[in-house]
Amino acid sequence: MAPTSGPFLALLSLVAVGTMAATVLLWPRVAGRKSSHAAARTGLLIATQLTAIVAVLGGLNSYFSFIVSWSDLVGTHASATSAGGQGTGHPPVPPPIVVTYTQLAAGASAAPQPRAGHTPAATRSTPAAATATAAAKGEILTVQITGERTGITAARSYVYLPPQYFQRAYAHQLFPAVLVLSGYPSDPRSEITRLNLPGVAGAAIAAGRLRPTVFIIMFSSVDMPRDTECTDIPGGPQAATFFAADVPLAVERSFRVATSADGWAVMGDSTGGYCAVKLAMMHSDRFAAAVSLSGYYSALQDFTTGSLYGHSAAYRAENDLFWRLGHRPPPPVSVLLTTSRVGEDDYQQTIKFLRVIRPPMHGYGLILPSGGHNFRTWKRELGPALGWLSQRLTATGTAQPPPAR
Amino acid sequence: MGLTSGLLIGLAGFFAATAFAGTLWMWRRLASPRPSHLLARIGLLLWAQVTVMLVIFLSVNKSFGFFASWPDLFGTNNTTGVIVAPHHQSGGQSAPIRTRGTGALASRTATGRSGPTWSLTTGHDWSRYGRLQLVRITGLRSGIVASAYIYLPPQSFSPAQAGRTFPVIVVISDHVTTAGDPYSAVSLAVTAAAEIDAGRARPAIYVMVGASAAGGTGRAGGIGEGTGGARGAGRDLGCLDVPGGPQAATFFAQDLPTAIESAYPATQAPAGWAVLGDASGSYCALSLAMAHSDRFAVAAAPLAGYGAPPGSAGTRPGTAGWWLSGGSPLIRQENDLSWRLVNLPPQPISLFFLRAGQGEPRVRSGDDATGTPAPARAFLSPVRFPTHVTQITLATGPRPLAPALDRIMAAVTAPAPGSAPTVP
Questions:
Q1: Measured between CA atoms, how close is A15 to chain B, in angstroms?
Q2: B84–A398 C-beta distance less than 8 A
Q3: Do residues A59 and A105 share a domain?
Q4: How close B168 gets to chain A, by Cα (Å)?
Q5: With an 8 Å Cβ cutoff, are B80 and A249 in contact?
Q6: Which domain does A223 fall in, by range?
Q7: Do B32 and B138 fall within a single domain?
Q8: What ipTM describes this predicted complex?
Q9: Contact check, Cβ <8 Å, B89/A359
């Protein structure tokens, strides 16, 4: 029973309604003057309020997709680095990307929902008819990405392949790739269901504002319930290496995407925005551009992150984007930072950040008059952001030898 | 009244408190089974619930900034913005590679001698045996500037092979400029030219850099700035990114490859990049491959050069080891290659360990049957697939590194860009 599932939400509602009904019915029995009755009254009233609040929070959590699985809360710790056995035999190395579900991208408000034990890609037959519809609409693959170098596994990840990916005219084309990182906490599926990234990208491609581009959609935290902030954590998960080395190389091996920095960008909202700018600044040999939707610039460390920097003030400073601008040579990347004059806390910081950027780094701002820290705001910014990205992803290349699809 | 205004939250708080208190106050007057009382109870409870939830929603919304205004909440905020670019200063960006000298490789067969002798000439016949260049590499990202020798194989000057890319061996040694040393740029270029000419080694580009040169000069953020910078100057950084100090790993793993790829016909694929260190550059070579296998797929180093990062053991404040790891024992631990081999997933790399050939000190007690010293065995025992370890016995004579170059070049591959994808 997932925390966002109907049965679970129904259970929460049932508990709330039941508590309410019990209070109404038991009301007369605790109407006496005794202090025990007074305490019972207070207790019942608080219980009705608490159960109602829990039910509403459950509904909001489901709507915003903050916590979507119980392992998010307790953590699986399977994603951390593993020592493994030291046998001499070669253990089977899992493929870096496993496709667990495929759906057409058109009308993408329907969420890709992988079912347990769904047939993986190996046995996924692609009859000509299916390919024809994919060539018209594009596909969204639900994938699991395993980091060869870090041992990190990102189970809930998605790959959007534009219609052109399946068209004969593009059969030898290497597509630009954009890594999209969702905030903390969140479900990367929100980038599809609430931001409608595939829909907006598909429309922009059709309108000629965006070159056909492959999007890889992932959750910015690699070690739930912890917020890992895309940091190589000393003694912990190497989240930066995962996103800057493992994921791009795995995607390059599995899909027809560009293999040079001028064909790769990283984009994200909130924590994902901080991640995007940081990854691009630290790995400008890998990413040429970054889009930060309502991101921040400081090296966060709080109760959701735990110790991220090995108790080293110097290493924490390296992860502070303002510090980097002041103390490191500006990297050859372009960044687009979005914020709102009214409704975002990061407005002043963003303006200041844009002001201190020096070539060869280039900063651009997209500033709305008003808009909060939510997907509606980001949806308004997405179209212009994709057009901006398209101008910066200039890689051209062809795949050799011609791929099967 | 704004959605995030304190007044609104205060008002909601007032309603919530009065609803709570009012319910308790009215409790005893509504305790009869009459339908009107029943309805009143339900109404009071609902009001108490709604008001308290309003307080929670408004406070959470204000603190996280989810919705900025009423139109934002109701989805009617359709304001848009345009992308603005602050005035961009035109770049004063220096070229990543500047040539400072060039020589050609030459071979002469002297009468009465068993084999050809090789030398560096000032000629321009590069298409026969290749070219050796002295260049200066400016690290855009690290700010580190280092001199390097580049050997380009004769095939890279062949018009028939235009468009071909070559694998790259980065050699890190403090003896790049030491005449006669096997790791000197001239010796390496001569060895490479001879091996390529004889068909024993595949053609490759050689980039030869001093081990400490990369830490010796710097621009922003490190050298010459505070105590960290003073410490970094000219010291062995182990090709590490020092927190708050010189970024040697960024130089070797990002700046140098992108600079070489921009100026020479070098492959972009990590499988085509190798790094070779001598005793002074062995930790560099191994740590670059083990921590940056997305850039270097092959590392080669003398058998004795492995293990702990530079600087004395321990991370007491003030010591070199403490400074190199940003004062963090955890970072120091991650820089320990033995620890990495045991505790991190095995990297997709090939490691070559170079052992001296015949005429060198014989097997000592503690060595195993193959002559591998016990400390090396302990270091290598955790190695597991997909990491590969191979030992190479160096040759005797004027070009001891010849077998190493042959084997390294056999291990690196330079696939065509965008090789066959495995899924869709």
A1: 14
A2: no
A3: no
A4: 17
A5: no
A6: 97-392
A7: no
A8: 0.84
A9: yes
